[in-house]
Design brief:
Blueprint (H helix, E strand, L loop, with lengths): L1 H20 L10 E4 L4 H10 L5 E8 L2 E7 L3 E4 L1 H6 L7 E5 L2 H4 L2 H12 L19 H13 L7 E2 L8 H10 L9 E2 L2 H5 L4 E6 L1
Antiparallel strand pairs: 1-2, 1-5, 2-3, 3-4, 5-8, 6-7
Helix pairs in contact: 5-6
Length: about 200
Amino acid sequence: MKRSFLIPAAVFLAFSVASCQNHSFPLQEGDLVFQSFASSQTRAIQLATKSQFTHVGLILRHDGTLMVYEAVGPVKFTSMDEWIDRDPNRHFVVKRLKNAKTILTTGNLAKLARVARTFEGKPYDFVFNWSDDKIYCSELVWKTYDRALGIEIGGLRKLKDFDLSSAEVRTKLSERYPDGVPLEDTVISPQDVFQSEVLATVYTQ
């Protein structure tokens, strides 16, 4: 009697786990996911970069599940459901390499994951420095693709290239750079990654 009860229970549990991990939108390893959520920093980023999106993550497989690998606090894996729920409107965009079927082979995905994991646990870089000591979201994505596969997703800029004229941006800059804004520092914004010509949009919510 116990045996007949346990089998359906196990099947139900397996089905529930699978259902939680599946989504109605297309998602593959190597995809990039973009979102925005409210904070004083994200508002300043939007104003400076003229972007709707202020955060980007990389889709990688972790423990058999597709998850978002991102620089937020430490660099870490986040479930897709948790990632989506950060935005009260649950708005996000999925982008993919235009030639993903050719480029993202099993071997190249392994390279991508191997390079990405070298950043795991690194703290968030609030001053957007280009060193590897600390990492911000679009820097993580850009360096991972560049170092693993030699693909530059978005053009690098100097900090001075952004619109730093608004009061909100200037206030945030003065907080982060009390000794002066390093205008010649190399940076990459989520918007630069988002509008890269090597990417195509595969889903918008």
